[in-house]
Amino acid sequence: MLSYTLRRLFQSGFVLLMMSFLVFVGVYAIGNPVELLINPQADDAERLRATIAMGLDKPFYAQYLAFLGTASTGDFGRSFVFNVPALSLILQKLPATIELALFATMIAVVVGIPLGLIAGLKPDSFVGRAIMALSIIGFSLPTFWVGLVLIMFFSVHLGWLPSNGRGDTVDVLGIPVSFLTWDGLTHLFMPAFNLALFKLSLLIRLTRSGTREALLQDYVKFARAKGLSNTRVIGVHVLKNIMIPIVTVIGLEFGSVIAFAIVTETIFAWPGTGKLLIDSINQLDRPVIVAYLLVIVSLFIFINFLVDVVYSVLDPRVRLGAQSGGGH
Amino acid sequence: MNAVLQVENLRTHFFTKAGVVKAVDDVSFSVERGKILGLVGESGSGKSMTGYSIMGLIDAPGKIVDGRILLNGENIIGLKHEQWRGLRGNRVAMIFQDPMMTLNPVLRIDTQMIEAIQAHEKISSVNARERCRAALVRVGIASADERLNSYPHQFSGGMRQRVAIAIALLNKPDVIIADEPTTALDVTIQGQILFEMQALCRDSGTALIWITHDLSVVAGLADHIAVMYAGKVVEYGSVAKVLDAPLHPYTQGLLASVPSRNRRGQPLKQIPGMTPSLLEIGSGCAFRERCPYRMPDCEATPPLSPHAAHRQVRCFHPVTGHSA
Ligand SMILES: Nc1ncnc2c1ncn2[C@@H]1O[C@H](COP(=O)(O)OP(=O)(O)O)[C@@H](O)[C@H]1O
Ligand code: SF4
Ligand SMILES: [Mg+2]
Fold it and tell me: Quick one: which of A271, A253, A247, A276 has its CA closest to A197?
């Protein structure tokens, strides 16, 4: 188990290094931020001074090494635009994004799994078919379009839900959250649903096919042969088995929920990292872009690691296999 | 009569898009307390569906369309869902063919055993667990306490089947239906389990229905035998009588295809032809395409009729008249 963990850590470090390089190269290739930041009337001397101040006069590899050196201490440089450390800018916006992503995932789980279960138990019924039709729609509609339609309907037409911002927030452990105030909740609901829709459809399908497959298994027939109630057969025997792939997918997809939040945050002006990224790209704020990408990659890696742990807790075959492996 | 279970003219059909599959089509037999009935027939002859029908485990598009299943004299067909659930695993238990698949891979053995008791009586988990431990010991599982905390994948196939047997025994059922429980195991373990099941049922007075496609298994195990062909029981009687002097041409063919000590050196005979499809099966004797004794009247469907004492056969021309 220890060697496995070490290997995982080593792999993670390597992935991070590769990403840092790719990100740096990619970002380096776009435009010259000096042009955007200084007064267009400025003379060459002033331009040179700005270039040197931002370290853009040095050769590429020197810039990369310098970046690596400072990045490893958590310093991604200062935002060209806001003139504050890029990382602190990201971290300041991260809670909003994570709140949105968590809430979206919660909606997907709370709605998707029961619907998938119903569709799996009664695949030929009207309800089962209707659920599947909904999931197909949820899959195929583009996020930004759904977001706009939601705003048109609930904000513009009905005037029920606000269409931008986080609303009132309260601090929990020094982190501002929206979901604890009514105003914040009304702001959170629409973007979270918008972000959840795709995952919700995915979970419906996953749960449905898992349920259908599990129902055909001998262990379900045997559980019924023992005289167990339907509730116990489905709630324990079926659900516990299908939870293994479902939890894995929820975990792995959490990263992509954060990534997709870029679109949703832009539409609903949700002040998270996604919106910050788009703004930073528009302004060629390189340190912020780089810091964003690396923070998100680190988050991905961390989530994958957590998923592995949860997976091994859920599946005794993996858990015990790993234990006996450690004994060698 | 002290028959615990009587099945009378049972018919279970599957209403599929392609047509009606008469998986079980006029099956009758009975089992007595502490006795063993061998239910024999080729794969696809409806043995498992007969077992599932008795358990009330036939799922759509299948349906019991006719007949009676008398458990201790009471017809259980037509019972409410909840009443039938109360019988399953309690008065009638079932063991399946593949022990690698019947236990839930993500639940501990104790969970899977205790729930089987608690489904039928109010009992504390501690007391239920003690009964589970005793049941494991009875089926010959060593260090039962430790085994209760294990997961199925930590057991061999034979051990898993023993666990399944222990689960079936937990509530001291009147009848256990064992659906080819040793087919997936290797031969030595097959023999052990066969022997142990026999002893367990005799001791507890449980009636046992042993489903198999292998006549030689039944020969050393069962008291009575019911031979199935194409969804129907074609011959029923005591093992000694049926195996000594089979009445139905199909039973005779089956026997000729089993290696036996007193016919050593003689070639084994295969029954020519194939089992008919049960989909939209017409009238007439289902065996007639393969039957050496076929006559024009075999175009009608023969009934299962009494023949001599305690024997029944579904044939217009039982083998006695021929030189078999
Ligand atoms: N869900 C189903 N739909 C249609 N036919 C079925 C279904 N389940 C079983 N059958 C049919 O029932 C017949 C008997 O099956 P089974 O009882 O499993 O045979 P055995 O146990 O003797 O091998 C088979 O011919 C099979 O095709
Ligand atoms: S009824 Fe006729 S065809 Fe059928 S088994 Fe008897 S002799 Fe053969
Ligand atoms: Mg079968």
Answer: A253
Query: What's the rounded Cα separation, in Å, for the pair B9 and B67?
Result: 5
Q: Which of the ligands is closest to the CA of residue B246?
A: 2
Spacing, Cα B23 to ligand 1 middle (Å): 6
B61 cis-preceded (ω within 30 degrees of 0)? yes
Q: Output the six-digit token pair for A290.
A: 């780089």
Which residues, 6 or more positions from B178, have their beta carbon under 8 angstroms from its beta carbon? B94, B95, B197, B208, B209, B210, B211
Q: What digits encode the pLDDT tens for the residues B251-274? A: 988 888 777 656 556 666 777 777
Q: Do A232 and B119 touch (CB under 8 A)?
A: yes
Q: Is the CB of B317 under 6 A from ligand 2?
A: yes
Tell me the CATH architecture of domain B3-79+224-313.
3-Layer(aba) Sandwich (3.40)
Task: Kindly state whether B101 is in contact with chain A, defined as any CB-CB distance less than 8 angstroms.
Answer: yes
CA distance B114 to B170: 9
ipTM at complex level: 0.90
Across chain B, which distance is largest between two alpha carbons, in Å? 66
Residues of B in contact with A121 (CB under 8 A): none
A45-79 tens-digit pLDDT? 877 887 777 777 777 788 788 878 877 787 877 88
B108 by Cβ neighbours in 10 Å (0-12 / 13-18 / 19+) ranks as: middle
Q: Does B172 touch chain A (CB under 8 A)?
A: no
